[in-house]
Amino acid sequence: MQISIKNLYKNYQLNGLEVPAIRGIDLTIKKGEFSAIAGPSGSGKTTLLNIIGGLDRPTAGEIRVGNDDLNKLNQKELSDLRLHRIGFIFQAYNLIPVLTALENVEYVLLLQGVLKEERTTRSTRILEEVGLGEYINRFPKELSGGQQQRVAVARAIVSEPEIILADEPTANLDQKTGALLLDLMHDLNHKKNITFLFSTHDQMVMEKARRLVYLTDGTSNSDTFRGHGHFKDNKIKKKSKKKSN
Amino acid sequence: MKTLILISWRNLWRQKRRSLIVILSVGLGIFAMILSIGLLNGMINQAVENTISTSIGHIAIHQKGFQDTMKLEYNFLPARGIEKIIMEENYVSSYAPRLKVQAMVRSAEASRGVLVYGIDPEKEKTISKISDYTIKEDGGAFLDSPSEGSILISKSMAKKLDLLIGDKLVLMIQDKNNEIVGIGMTVKGFFQTPVDSFDKFVVFAGMRKMQEITGLDKNITEINILLKDKKDVDAVKKLLISKIGNPDLEILTWKDMVPNLVSAVKFMDAMMYIFFSIIFITVIFSIANTLVMAIMERFHEIGVMKSIGTRPSWIFFIVIFEAVNLGLIGLAAGVSMGTICTMVLSNVGLDFSFFIESMRMWGTGSIIYPSIKTMDIVMATVIVMSTTIVAALYPAVKAARIKPLEALNYV
């Protein structure tokens, strides 16, 4: 499974004016990547993530998740895509406040129609994996920011999605908590081969990522890969060639 | 489904005070509705029962023409056959003959036009409550024999005529030959019924005595019948008509004899619709308003739920369930309060004696015993629940249509 984006454009209407947010991006994300999209505010990071997640539709261009052309899916099919194949982690944790940690994680499995017993075992196991074994029956407001974000990670991975989209996951956390969270995700990527795609401002995230796509003004002006320790700088001319990594 | 209900249940208690206010307003509305329906039911029932138990019974048999004119010439002989038919009828609880004659009573002070009920005291006890309504203090008593020369008058009439027990009055009657005859009678007792018009107009005397005075011999003007169950009147009326088979006799139910009470019952049914629509409006607005507010508050959260793959229909049901929960709790509170209150009051009674004059005019008596039918409660339940769901439709659709992206960006 891979995500491939071809010649993607997105304009927003703002007070009657067309404001371009993404201007021609080509990108392919392969199974098992641990990649970050960086760039200044307004460069289109979040928009790109939203389009990949089926929350937003592109103005032009093609986006495929696996074999599915997202432009051809209706709202319900997009819902199902998000439910089964994509996990989200948001900046503001975004747990369901009336559900406990365990219930929040279970919720996704419930939507998937997993049976009660299996739901509970799987959710409990995942919460233990993210280090929240003791807190499974707490409500979000009874957890710290870092803990809430761990629940959010657990919720995102419990359904074993093909990719996890994390929109500035560390932005609301302090340095240490952010680092721990990132380590956790790194571990999960390593051990379970879960694909992660971040959008971030955070230097630490950029350093940990094995691939860094840098956006400015809605286009990618650099796409670098890192094997061990340092990025292999791989500047590209925008839209000049099809990438193959 | 269980989780959806759980979510909506917990959502409900996030704003405890607001939810409680809605529950309270729904509950109070239903409570007030049940109580007022109970009171109205009680009033109407009592008015009907009081009229039946004083003057008309469930079914009456007359000579054709009597009901409209109340004239003595429409009399008939209660043939053995008729009595046998009535007696053998399973639905019948009791019956009694009466001789109703228009007359004038005169005391030393004043005179009044009255309707004399010539009764057989023992039989009368089985069909009317006049014996119970007779005031036993001051040496007053109910009639003993159909042939005695005494009379029973209402307390209010006694006051107007300035009569005491044991006093004499003169009864002036047109007999069957249209001759005016006068006869002295002794006042044996006073009665007081809850029906004002009855007290103003009716006196009781022995039936044999009245037959003597009017020269009717063994003839009477009506047979009054009390059934075991009031509901059977129409069926029994039909049965009696076909069994007695006398075209000169008219067999009427209480509904035929007091059409104004029947229309009061219909009026009350119409009132019910008004009550129901008031509740309808209260429920619609309080629930819809609360839900719209709740959804605005949870705009972001609904966006999250949708972005992690919750289908719009699920969001729709979460909102509907929240409304149903609100409605159900309010309903439970209102119905239980209303029913308990009505049941207690139906035993204790609600004393309206500060309205006594108008209550007597309605013939209900001054103490109202509310009564509520299971059907009314079922009706209220169905109406409130369906209204709740109707009220929730708009907010639920709105919530289901929230675009996840907009909601995520909305904090």
Question: What do these coordinates show?
Answer:
The complex is a heterodimer of chains A (245) and B (411). In chain A, a hairpin with a 4-residue loop joins strand 10 (219-226) and strand 11 (231-232). The relative contact order of chain A is 0.19. Helices cover 33% and strands 29% of the residues of chain A. Chain A is built from seven helices and eleven strands. Chain A has a domain at 2-85 and 161-232: 3-Layer(aba) Sandwich (Rossmann fold). Chain B has helices spanning 2-12, 16-56, 66-69, 80-88, 121-127, 130-133, 155-161, 196-201, 207-214, 233-244, 254-257, 259-297, 299-307, 312-348, 356-362, 374-400, 404-409; strands spanning 59-63, 92-106, 111-119, 134-135, 150-154, 168-174, 180-191, 202-206, 222-227, 249-253, 350-351, 367-368. Chain B has a six-stranded mixed barrel, surrounded by four helices. In chain B, strands 11-12 form a two-stranded antiparallel sheet. Chain B has two domains: 2-51 and 261-409, no CATH class; 65-247, no CATH class. At the A-B interface, helix 2 and helix 3 of A face helix 1, helix 13 and helix 17 of B.
Lateral arrangement of strands in the main beta sheet of chain B: 2-3-8-5-7-6
Radius of gyration of chain B: 31 Å
> What is the distance, rounded to the nearest whole angstrom, between the alpha carbons of the first and last residues of chain B?
28 Å
Span between N and C termini of chain A?
Answer: 15 Å
- What is the 3D form of chain A? globular
Which range does the strand content of chain B fall in?
Answer: 15-25%
> How many distinct helices of chain A?
7
Q: What portion of residues of chain B is helical?
A: 55-70%
How would you spell out the order of helices and strands of chain A? Answer: EEEHEEHEHHHEHEHEEE
Task: Name the CATH homologous superfamily of the domain at 2-85 and 161-232 in chain A.
Answer: P-loop containing nucleotide triphosphate hydrolases
The chain-level structural class of chain B is: alpha+beta
Order of helices and strands of chain B: HHEHHEEHHEEHEEHEHEHEHHHHEHEHH
Biggest chain-to-chain interface with counts: A-B, 29 and 22 residues
Counting DSSP H or I runs of 4 or more residues, the number of helices of chain B is 17
| CATH top level class name of the domain at 2-85 and 161-232 in chain A | Alpha Beta
Tell me about the biggest sheet of chain A?
A: 7 strands, mixed
State the total count of DSSP E strands of chain A.
11
Spans of chain B of 5+ residues with little confidence (pLDDT < 50)? none
Strand order in the sheet with the most strands of chain A: 6-7-8-3-9-10-11
